[in-house]
Structure formats: structure tokens, C-alpha cells
Amino acid sequence: MKHLFVPILGCFLSLSSLAQQAPKPYGALPSARQLKWHDTEMYCIVHFTPTTFEDKEWGYGDADPKTFNPSNFSAEQIVKSAKAGGFRGIVFVAKHHDGFCLWPTKTTDYNISKSPFRNGKGDMVKEMVDACRKNGMKIGLYCSPWDRNSAAYGTDKYLPIYQAQLKELYTQYGELFMSWHDGANGGDGYYGGARESRKINNLTYYDWDNTWQITRKLQPNANIFSDIGWDVRWVGNEKGFANETSWATFTPTAADGKSKGVPGNANDYDAPTGTRNGEKWIPAECDVPLRPGWFYHASQDGKSKSPQQLLELYYKSVGRGAAFDLGLSPDKRGQLHGDDVAILKSFGEILKKTFSKNWANTAQVTATGGRGFAVKTMLDNNRQTYWASKDDVTTPELVLSWSKPVSFNVLSIREAIALGQRIEEFALDVWENGDWKEIHRGTSVGALRLVRLPKYHTTEKIRVRITKSPVAVTISELGVYTEPEQLLAPTVRRDQKGTVTISSPVSVREIRYTLDGSEPKATSPLYSEAFALPQAATVKARAFGEAQSGPVTTVDFDMPSTKWNIDQKADKAIDGDPTTVWTSAKDASYPHTLTLDLGETLGLKGFTYTPDASDHRSGTVYKYRVYVSTDGENWGQPVAEGQFDNIQNNPLEQRVRFKQTVPGQFLRFVAVESTNGKETWARVAELGVITK
Fold first, then answer.
1. pLDDT tens-digit map of 298-335
2. pTM tops 0.85
3. b (16+ CB within 10 A) / e for 178-193
4. How many CB atoms are closer than 10 A to CB 23?
5. Whole-angstrom Cα distance, residue 413 to residue 321?
6. ∠ CA 624-630-635 to the nearest 5 degrees?
7. Paired strand residues for 367
């Protein structure tokens, strides 16, 4: 007998027939519209306005409508490219902060009918909606509440205009799956020619409680997204991932953590994790652009995220019970750049190859502590059926056994979320050498938990242990998968203690390395755990698969920073981790100085500087001076000075050699000027010395 979620039982079975068997719902529960949203999992948001033609990220609102003239707009190309990537929907930006409407609205003359597009007869919203429906994709719309063009913005005359725009969008284009909102709440703008800064009270100005009732009335199946919900919350960053522990339940509050939250004034600190036992079911959406920016910039060609980076984001968003919302940016033609199309296709192919075969379907599955529900309901590819433990069994175990060993690196678990999010901790074991070996520990599960292991495991049995849950456990689906081999260059790092770690951005069978400068071979040392490297050395590492090997990573390590000290509380600049960054006081001005104490006198042949390489990097040092001292008091003339050419566009480690070897215990790095003359602060990811 199949056991269906309680909310839909009446359609299939009498409630009384399962009243004694079905577990009671736990905590906040999703609505029917939210369950459909969870099924979507991946969608894209498309930004395309006059801002694209201005080469800006945020339009000021003063662009002439005639500038919006894509030479060959193709909604089909955009939608099909997203679908090839495995995405199931599009959120189209019908109006961004510049106020330009991509449909022939009656609310403002600042719209597409005043542009040359389709000779003034175009409706880009309709073209995107039609392309989505033709290709089996869901469609949602975003209409920015902030309008930098409208003369009425900031006055009591604007809200009726904005609400009228929502009504047009919600009545003219059919059913939507999302009503998308962000937290932009005023600032400088054109405002009908006033060219000034306008502030609003974001707690009251948009009257969200009543404004969103328009959505509920006209688009009852559309999920409302914003900082605080109502249906879907922002994850709190634009990096594309939720926290390792991710709750779909959430108690939205304002930035002070106490009062009522509204878009633009929400407690983002809790958003990446959610609220365990929160008041409402408000799962997270993880938004991130494919390119460095949300709008197309020719200067960012070649800098799109790789298929493997998208895959990592997929595991950290969808694989943590959230949604993956990828930003796509058409170019001036009105199409996605060819590189972006290829990346999406490759990403989609990896997903398809990974999840086309579920090894669990070929396994014998047993479970402890069940209440009589068939274990096969975990393998029927139906999210509306589930297996459940007895009320007094909160730590059941599931064992999958095969007659022949299988090789895998991905485990998936789904809870029956219509009954609430229950599981708080779990563990994964493999059968190895006649005994169980634990290979992973996890926390929340919810709509989906994907465990992506750092290496492939070949085994005849695996065991999933639920180790913590407040109530009986429900499992809707269980999966075991094998990701296709992708042999990428490993990442090699050494921390301040001199300990080297080697990792791969994808699962691999093995990594081998050398310390003598030779190329790693199948017979080179196998990397199995971090190791000490207290001296200067060249580490080379390579991933090996079944029949081939990947590219080599080469890292020249100089003396470790074990004995080092640095002033300005800049420990992040010598911790061996380029993702942690020291930032000078932002109220100070150039030049900025860091003084490094090496703990002993060394023959210094040069220095290294690594800038912040994040998508939103700032404070990048352009011009520098470097001094060396034996006593920390007498510095003399600079031993090196100059500039880091093209560092802003290519933020890699800079290696500068002195004209001759200089003995010294102290090195002083002076940041003279940044790549952005408007920035008063400096940032340093890593500062080091060259002694060999």
C-alpha cells in the first residue's frame, strides 16, 4: 500500500484508514504552492534593460528609451539555453530599478513602446512568457518597487502606480510561478529630471501587506519571494548557496532581530540557515549571477562560472533544500553569449549523467523501526509517498545492499516535507573490509539533502543512520548516484602551521603528489590526509581516474609563516588561506602599511602579494613600495617599488623579485594607491616572502 501525504489523502484514501499509521505533522508546514516551488528546484533570473546598453549594473533612470534596441533578440535562445542547463523556470525582470518597463504599460511613458524594438510595437514580457510556455518552462516576473525614473517616487502618488504595474503583469500574461521582489528602497536617481537622492520609510512606503494581497488575489499560485517571504526568502547573500544546516522554517524579523521585517529591512544574519522550529515555512532561494555581474558587460567575457562551479553551487543550494536561481544576462543582441550557452549545456549534461541512474533502485533496502509502510516507497520516484518510523523511533537506520559492488559518490535523501522538516542529524556508512566505516556526517535534510563525497566509494552495502530527530522520521525518496569523472586541477594550500591540504573541486578516485618538482604519476605518493611541510618546496598534485589523469597543479611554497607576526591585526594576511582577507580601516586613506616580522633573519629575494579575488573585490593594491630591515627600526630606501599591472582584471598572486638578495627579519609593505581611486581602503588576502 502506498502512503500518501496527509494533506492530499482525501483524494485517494479515507483519512480513517491511515489515521493510526500516519505520523502527525511537525512544526510549520508548506502550502500547496510552496510544494510546487520545491519541485521546481532550479530557475534563472534574466536582467535586460537599457542598463545593458549603458554598460552599467544599475541604471540611473535617465537613459533614452531609444538606446534600448537589441539587434536580434531571441527569447527562444535564452529559454532553451536555460532548459538545456536543467533549469525549470525563468524569472524575467520586467522592470529594474531604472524604471524602464519591458511591456507597453499604461502607467508610464518610460517603456518599451518608446524604443525602436519591434518598431515600438514590442512586448518583451510576452515574448519571454510565450517562449517559456512553448518550451515547458515555468515563468515568473519581477517588477522593481524602486523606480529611479519616476517623478512620483518618494511621494504618496507612486504606490498606486507601482500597484497598477503589478496588476497589469498579473492579469495580462497568464499563470506565474513566482512574484519576485528585492529590497531596493530608494537613493539617488533621475526622478523625472530632479536628479536627487530620495529616501523612503521602507517599513510603510510600499504597504506590503496590502500590495502582496494583489498577488494573492490575481496570482494565487505564485510564490512571493523577498527578504522575508511571504513564501520564499532570500538566502542572505548573492554567492549562490545556503548554509550546511538549512531549515525551511523561518521567523522573519527586521534587521534589529526583533521587529517586523520587510524587504530591504530584514535580519539577513539568520537567512542562510533559517530558523529551527520557525514560525512559518519560508524556504530559501540562492541567487547568483553566471557572470560576475547581473547585467552583461563585454569586459566580463571569459569570466563566467564554469560548469563545475555551477555544479558546486547546485549541491550547496538545491542539495541543501533550497532553490538555485542563476542570473542570466543577454548581450546587446538580446541573446546569451555563446560561452554562456555552452556552459549551461555542459552543466545540464553533467546533471543528467549523474542522476540518470539511481543505484538504490537495484539494491535490497531494509529499515529499522518502521510503522508498517513499505520501504519501496522510498524508491518509487514519487515525492507524495513516504516511509516512516514508529512514533517512538527517532533514530532509524536504512541499509542498502547490492549483489555486486557499486561505485558512487552522491547520496540523496528527501523528507516528506508536507508533514514538516524533522531530521536534525544523520550519518552515512560504507561496508569496508568486513565492517562499517563512517564517511560522512550531516545535519538538516528537508526537501532534499545531497551528500557529495570527495572521492568515489566502491562497496556492496551502505547505511544511512538518522542520529537525531525530535519526532518520528519520514523519508520520501532515497538515491545513490555516480557523478561522471571530471578530472580538474586540485587545490593545494598550506596554513600558518605549515600543514598542506590537497583537495579537488569534484569527486575523484585518487590524488597523487610530489615534492621534488617532478610530474605526479600513478606511482607517486597517494594523498590521503594533510601533511606537514615545514620547509620551502614545490608541491605538484594531479587527480587520477579510471583511465586517465587530470591537469597538474603546481604551487611553490616558500618558508611557512609559523614564526611570523604582523601588525594592524592582519593575521588573515598570513594565514595561508587566500579566501580570508585583511581590510584596512575604511575611514583611513592611502598609503596603508603592513609590517611583517619573520621571527628570524633570512636572505630575502622578493615578496608576494595576493589580492582579494572574490566577485565583489575591492581595495586592490595597484602601486606599492617595500622595505626590509634587520631590527624593525632602520629601514633605509625601498628594495622594491612599482605597480601590479592588470591586477584588477586578473587578481592572481603577484611575485616580485628584488634586484639582489637582502638580509632581513622585517618586511614592510606599503600600499601606495589602489586600482580604484575612489576607494580609501586596502585589502590583502596574503602577504609573503621569497627566499629561494
1. 988 988 999 999 999 999 999 999 999 999 999 999 99
2. no
3. bbbbbbbbbeebbbee
4. 22
5. 10
6. 45
7. 398
